Amino acid sequence: MRRLLLFIRGALPLVLLALALVGLPTLVAWWVLGGPFGWRHLGVGVLVGMLLVGLGGLALGWAIGRQRER
What is the pTM of this model? Predict the structure, then answer.
């Protein structure tokens, strides 16, 4: 039981973050583009989420690289 609770404690924030990274841009795309919710809104949300993760990775890599120079 303890292992399950530890797994949930670690996995739940990651799942919520993934949903936020895809869900929020998807809802914004639906609001901006209008019309019935469809695959194009989800596609825009996934692409924007991937872009945000990539930019975050680049920023993290840049910061780590700057630390190693010192």
Answer: 0.73
